[in-house]
C-alpha cells in the first residue's frame, strides 16, 4: 500500500464524519402548561400527573419503572437540612448541589423490595417559574445520570 493510499485510509477512518463524533444536543420536549421544555433523547411519553399541576415523563433510558415528575411550586423548600434529613432516613451517597437558580440533591435509597434505587430532587427557578423535578423507580447508575441530565435541562419556553 502506498503512503498516499494509507493516508487516505486513515483520513476515511478517523475524520470523515465529524458530526457523528460530536455530541448532539437532545431535542427539547415541551411541557406547555408549565411554560417549560425538557431535553431527552429517544421515545418519550409525557402525560399529565395524576395529581397536582405537572407532568410524568417516561423514557426507556430511565428503565422500565423509572419516571420523572415535573411540576411548578409556589414555595420551593430551602436546601438547609435536606441532606441531613435524607441521610437520617437511611439514604446513601447523598449529594446536595447548590446553584444560583436553586438546588439539586441526588443519592441512593435502599429498598427492601426493589434493591437500591437512585433519586434526584431538583428545585430551580427557571425563567421566573419555581420548578420541581424528581425521579421515581430509577434502578441503574446510567438511568440516574440520564435523569439528572434531564432535570437540569429544564428551560423556559415563554
Write a structural description:
The chain has one domain: Protein Transport Mog1p, Chain A (3-Layer(aba) Sandwich), CATH 3.40.1000.10. It has four helices and ten strands; from the N terminus they run H-H-E-E-E-E-E-H-E-E-E-E-H-E. It has helices at 3-15, 18-21, 82-88, 141-152; strands at 28-31, 36-39, 45-48, 55-58, 67-72, 92-99, 102-109, 117-126, 129-136, 155-156. The strands form two sheets. It has a seven-stranded antiparallel sheet with strand order 3-4-5-9-8-7-6, with helices on both faces. A hairpin with a 4-residue loop joins strand 1 (28-31) and strand 2. It starts with a helix and ends with a strand. Residues 1-22 have low confidence and may be disordered.
Strand and helix map with partners:
Layout: H1 3-15, H2 18-21, E1 28-31, E2 36-39, E3 45-48, E4 55-58, E5 67-72, H3 82-88, E6 92-99, E7 102-109, E8 117-126, E9 129-136, H4 141-152, E10 155-156
Antiparallel strand pairs: 1-2, 2-10, 3-4, 4-5, 5-9, 6-7, 7-8, 8-9
Characteristics:
158 residues; alpha+beta; Protein Transport Mog1p, Chain A; 7-stranded antiparallel sheet; 3-stranded antiparallel sheet; 4 helices; 10 strands; disordered N terminus
